[in-house]
Amino acid sequence: MSCVRLGVILATLLLGWVLLWTTQGKGVVQDDPERNIAIPDVLLMPLQMQVAYNDEKIYFRYRWPAERAYVYHDMLRYEQGRWVRHGGSPVGAHPDGTYEDRVTMLVDDGKVPEFGRYGGYITVGANARFFTDQATPAEVQADPHLGQTLRQSDVRKYLPATRMDVSDWRGVVDEQTLQQQREAGYFLDLWHWRAGRSNAVGVSDDQLIAEFRLSDKGRGPYTTNWDAANSRPMWVFDREKAGIDALRWDTVQAQSPDFDGIYFLSEDLAKPFDPDHQWQEGDVIPRILHRQPEGSRAAIGVEGGPARWSNGYWDVTLVRALDTGFPLDDKMFREQGVYTLGMAVHRDATGSRWHYVSHPYTLGLGREADIVAQRFSGETPQWSDTWKDLTLFYPGQVNWPLLVSKAHAGAPDIAEGKPVRPRHSEKQLAIYGVEMEFNQEIISQWRKTLVVGLLLMLGVWFGLHRLMKNVRLNEGGGA
Amino acid sequence: MNGVHAMLVHFPLAFWALATLMILAGVFLSGRFAELSRAGLLPVLVFSLLGAVAGLVSGWLVWPAEANLYSPLARNHILMAIWSLAIYSSITLLIWRFGALMFQGTQRWALVVLALAGGLLFAITGTLGGHLAGSPTHFSQLLAAFGWTVYETFYVPDAVLVALLLLAIIAAGVGLTAKTGDKG
């Protein structure tokens, strides 16, 4: 047998294997804004938590790394005589960095049992906002409940039983059933701390998930500062109170806010827009006006005043009454109670679905749980250095209808009530989430790889077979 | 079907492991044990292929077809299983056609390379099966250390596919153009 020819044939197999191994996973995953796809550079991030409570209040402390503090949210920049918006929900990171950091927490008291097993996945319905197959504004506006009753134009988080068909966001159950569900506690409390739209006035937004992501009753901590009729801000800084007429664009772009200075516009710093003021190129007025919230929506405060970012970390402590008195909006905490939490963080100027989420974790008040709240007496908790370390992951485009469908091998396990945490790690879920964003392309490429790999083996076998026939002939055997 | 599959795949895995050891023994050892290994290899390989077909069919039926295609782990399991079957089929055909001749001269190195490649492939296949059954092993961490996280679908770009096809053509062409009496 020719040693050289044999060597070449075997080398093709080995070289092919090296090529396969070193280039696997490449060539498909890439940002595609047209399809609402933007893959974060990092798929996992840490979050540390501590929880404490006394007779009246409960405190949640969150700490997470963030390269910068993004507190400027939705800004109006004066450009060539016009007020131009730099904000709004982007695909992935906002190119101007004008999108706020956030930490959010879903809370349940056992009335949404599947939340305890599958966490936030149950809130991600069909055709959600910023999914590749998102429902169009026209479709949502035409819907009797989401469009005409709630006046919405996109599909956001909702709970499965608020729909007649879990795979159809349109089929909202009737109003009476929704009301009965709420009274039965079938909703998730949503603590929603916003670095740009709530923190500056020392509060967290307070919302809930039912048939939509709804706000608690009452007045929210911000309103839109835009005079649409005149295409200009409605409110501007009052120099006598704020010491400035406007922020500057280069300051906003630097993303290093002075937490002791003015980086936001609030009612007590504002005055009505002055059309006679000589606005300068690069002047910036926030498109968000902060105000003190009222009612149920004002239930969550930031302990110790606005939270701060320093040395690469946000450190946020939220505080709320154990019982807010709003049982249709909030989940109440009680001694000896066990609750389910699901946390999420937005950082790096991202919004909507570009967040990092946690598995569901239990919280115990005087009970064993994943996170045990520390009871204390006095006015404020004395935090220790003992943190609950969590790993958050980028969830990609995976929704609840998919998870309970035949396309998910674990659907029977879900039907049997087996929880997700023992089955899938955060890393695994992050990778699956990204792959789902390119599912058809990856399946196609996988098929081609499978077939071409077989062809390579066929080529090697054919080459060896021909060589061996010659060997047999050389040795005097038959053909 | 999951239990049936778990039972059936023991046969090809055992036969392939045995066949790989018999090839290595047949190539590198001498004496009675080596002779037995060479003589008994073909039946072991044939049984392994029968078991592999049963394993593949039963495996495909564990989940709905859609779930098989949507799961990155299942995709990888299927790909590695089919490639394992292909490489041991190659070995089987070579042993069937050329028998003891494959253990002689330089061509025995072809058997060694194919057997080791097959061994690696079926080890990966089994590891992925363990993951799918909820029993991951540390072997996947070894694969990760070498650059492949098993939760990521194994696929390559089109340019690499073209290169692989060229390699396949080269391999076939090198054999096709060999002449009788060619000593290299």
From TrEMBL, chain A:
<dbReference type="GO" id="GO:0020037">
    <property type="term" value="F:heme binding"/>
</dbReference>
<protein>
    <submittedName>
        <fullName>Ethylbenzene dehydrogenase</fullName>
    </submittedName>
</protein>
<keyword id="KW-0249">Electron transport</keyword>
<dbReference type="Pfam" id="PF09459">
    <property type="entry name" value="EB_dh"/>
</dbReference>
<keyword id="KW-0408">Iron</keyword>
<feature type="domain" description="Cytochrome c-552/DMSO reductase-like haem-binding">
    <location>
        <begin position="8"/>
        <end position="358"/>
    </location>
</feature>
<keyword id="KW-0813">Transport</keyword>
<dbReference type="GO" id="GO:0046872">
    <property type="term" value="F:metal ion binding"/>
</dbReference>
<keyword id="KW-0479">Metal-binding</keyword>
<dbReference type="InterPro" id="IPR019020">
    <property type="entry name" value="Cyt-c552/DMSO_Rdtase_haem-bd"/>
</dbReference>
<keyword id="KW-0349">Heme</keyword>
Automatic annotation (TrEMBL), chain B:
<feature type="transmembrane region" description="Helical">
    <location>
        <begin position="110"/>
        <end position="134"/>
    </location>
</feature>
<feature type="transmembrane region" description="Helical">
    <location>
        <begin position="154"/>
        <end position="178"/>
    </location>
</feature>
<dbReference type="Pfam" id="PF09990">
    <property type="entry name" value="DUF2231"/>
</dbReference>
<feature type="transmembrane region" description="Helical">
    <location>
        <begin position="78"/>
        <end position="98"/>
    </location>
</feature>
<feature type="transmembrane region" description="Helical">
    <location>
        <begin position="6"/>
        <end position="29"/>
    </location>
</feature>
<feature type="domain" description="DUF2231">
    <location>
        <begin position="4"/>
        <end position="133"/>
    </location>
</feature>
<feature type="transmembrane region" description="Helical">
    <location>
        <begin position="41"/>
        <end position="63"/>
    </location>
</feature>
<keyword id="KW-0812">Transmembrane</keyword>
<protein>
    <recommendedName>
        <fullName>DUF2231 domain-containing protein</fullName>
    </recommendedName>
</protein>
<keyword id="KW-0472">Membrane</keyword>
<keyword id="KW-1133">Transmembrane helix</keyword>
<dbReference type="InterPro" id="IPR019251">
    <property type="entry name" value="DUF2231_TM"/>
</dbReference>
